[in-house]
């Protein structure tokens, strides 16, 4: 499976996603970028780990608060940068969006072998994907 950026560069998402998931703060990740200028990512964080981090940092630990807190965004951005530092510049994640719910077989976002159903995940989260490719600062960190 390959993502082809609008500049013609080929990106293999699987190795990038595997590196992202090596972070204890990232549970699931899906790289996006087909026909786009740069790579972005949908992230399902490990909320348990984030809550532990937040409690120690004096940040509200509710899921909704964690998803929008600047310090949590900065932490996830640092984790994304750290785990993908060895990839080529065009393969690195420029923006990301945090999702509240895990992808599951029951939600039809994963196959029985636990692989992402990319088209369905994209369709279900199109608003967040569009925001990452607009000039909006919402998804950018």
Describe what this molecule looks like in 3D.
A hairpin with a 6-residue loop joins strand 3 and strand 4. Strands 3-4-5 form a three-stranded mixed beta sheet, sandwiched between helices. Strands 1-2 form a two-stranded antiparallel sheet. It has a single domain (3-133), classed as GMP Synthetase, Chain A, domain 3 (2-Layer Sandwich), CATH 3.30.300.30. The chain has 141 residues and is an alpha+beta fold. The radius of gyration is 15 Å and the shape is globular. The protein is built from six helices and five strands. The longest helix has 14 residues, at 70-83. 38% of the residues lie in helices and 17% in strands.
The SSE order reads EEHEEHHHEHH
- Oligomeric status of the shown chains? single chain
Give the terminus-to-terminus CA distance.
Answer: 27 Å
Uncertain runs are: 136-141
Question: Mean pLDDT across all residues, rounded?
Answer: 92
* Broad shape: globular
Question: Which class in CATH terms?
Answer: Alpha Beta
Q: What's the number of extended β-strand segments?
A: 5
Please count the helical segments: 6
The CATH topology is what?
GMP Synthetase, Chain A, domain 3
- Secondary structure class reads alpha+beta
């Amino acid at each position: 499976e390959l993502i082809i950026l609008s500049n013609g560069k080929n990106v293999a998402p699987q190795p990038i996603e595997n590196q992202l998931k090596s972070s204890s703060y990232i549970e699931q990740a899906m790289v996006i970028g087909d026909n786009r200028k740069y790579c972005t990512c949908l992230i399902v964080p490990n909320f348990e780990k984030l809550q532990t981090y937040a409690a120690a940092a004096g940040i509200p630990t509710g899921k909704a608060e964690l998803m929008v807190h600047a310090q949590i965004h900065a932490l996830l951005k640092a984790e994304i940068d750290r785990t993908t530092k060895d990839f080529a510049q065009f393969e690195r994640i420029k923006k990301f969006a945090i999702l509240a719910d895990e992808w599951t077989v029951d939600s039809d976002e994963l196959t029985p072998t636990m692989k992402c159903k990319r088209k369905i995940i994209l369709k279900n989260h199109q608003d967040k994907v569009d925001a990452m490719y607009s000039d909006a600062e919402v998804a950018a960190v």
